């Protein structure tokens, strides 16, 4: 908030926005692991408090509310009881995205986030007259980019029904190289592995995917 963005080049600004967006997504991913009790599995209070803190930093979200919605998502994936469900009326990505947002960011939480940003702005503007530009570039914009990232890689592409597989019961995993998968959304493109083993931390999902592919190759090799 104290950076003078007018002294930065466009490339530096875009690079910093990208970094902030990536770290913003990381806050949600850490909180997500807490929802599955894999962040601090030996200390439930620490686990939940860390998750609560990360969601507050992410967008002033309610840990209890998000945990309940996410529990339903895993219990009833791709059904009417799934908060992330996309019905035929909401199958278009644009409509689905706003329905996805509304299930995690209600008006009360949005007001809390706005008040938090206004407080941050009032403090920062004392030292940096152009702090409002920083707020837009380094707080609001990364949050929007992060929400799109989480929606596309972690929800839309893995759960979207296709004509080729209309009766598919489990989400698909995206065929991404581990480095690209990490950059895209902390490996949550490996979504089938996550649903099959929800308590596995995000950084171990590539291992699950590799092991699954090894088993498939072994079956093919040993087939008569």
Characterise the protein shown here.
α1 runs antiparallel to α2, α1 (10-35) crosses α6 (131-159) and α4 packs across α6. The model has no long low-confidence stretch (mean pLDDT 88). The protein has one domain (5-163). The radius of gyration is 19 Å and the shape is globular. Helices cover 64% and strands 0% of the residues. The protein has 9 helices and no strands. The chain is mainly alpha-helical and 224 residues long.
Helix content: 55-70%
Q: Summarize the helix and strand pattern as letters.
A: HHHHHHHHH
User: Roughly what is the average pLDDT, rounded to an integer?
Assistant: 88
The first-to-last residue Cα distance is: 64 Å
Uncertain spans: none
Tell me the strand percentage band: under 5%
Main beta-sheet annotation: none
Shape assignment: globular
**What's the Cα radius of gyration?**
19 Å
SS content category? mainly alpha
Number of helices: 9
Number of strands: 0
Oligomer: single chain
Domain count: the total is: 1
Descriptive tags:
9 helices
Present the secondary structure layout.
Blueprint: H1 10-35, H2 44-59, H3 63-75, H4 93-102, H5 107-124, H6 131-159, H7 178-185, H8 191-196, H9 205-222
Helix pairs in contact: 1-2, 1-6, 4-6, 5-6
Please sum up the structure shown.
This protein is an all-alpha fold and 224 residues long. Helices cover 64% and strands 0% of the residues.
């Amino acid at each position: 908030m104290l950076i003078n963005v007018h002294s930065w080049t466009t490339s530096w600004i875009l690079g910093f926005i990208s970094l902030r967006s990536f770290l913003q997504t990381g806050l949600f991913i850490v909180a997500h692991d807490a929802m599955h009790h894999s962040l601090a599995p030996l200390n439930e209070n620490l686990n939940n408090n860390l998750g609560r803190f990360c969601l507050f930093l992410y967008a002033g979200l309610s840990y209890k509310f998000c945990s309940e919605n996410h529990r339903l998502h895993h219990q009833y994936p791709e059904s009417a009881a799934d908060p992330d469900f996309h019905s035929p009326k909401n199958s278009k990505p644009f409509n689905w995205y706003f329905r996805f947002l509304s299930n995690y960011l209600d008006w009360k939480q949005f007001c809390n986030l706005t008040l938090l940003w206004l407080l941050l702005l009032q403090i920062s503007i004392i030292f940096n007259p152009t702090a409002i530009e920083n707020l837009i570039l380094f707080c609001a914009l990364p949050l929007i980019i992060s929400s799109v990232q989480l929606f596309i890689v972690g929800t839309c592409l893995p759960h979207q029904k296709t004509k080729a597989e209309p009766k598919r019961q489990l989400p698909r995993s995206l065929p991404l190289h581990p480095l690209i998968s990490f950059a895209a959304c902390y490996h949550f493109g490996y979504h089938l592995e996550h649903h099959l083993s929800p308590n596995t931390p995000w950084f171990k999902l590539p291992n699950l995917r590799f092991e699954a592919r090894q088993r498939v190759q072994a079956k093919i090799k040993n087939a008569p």
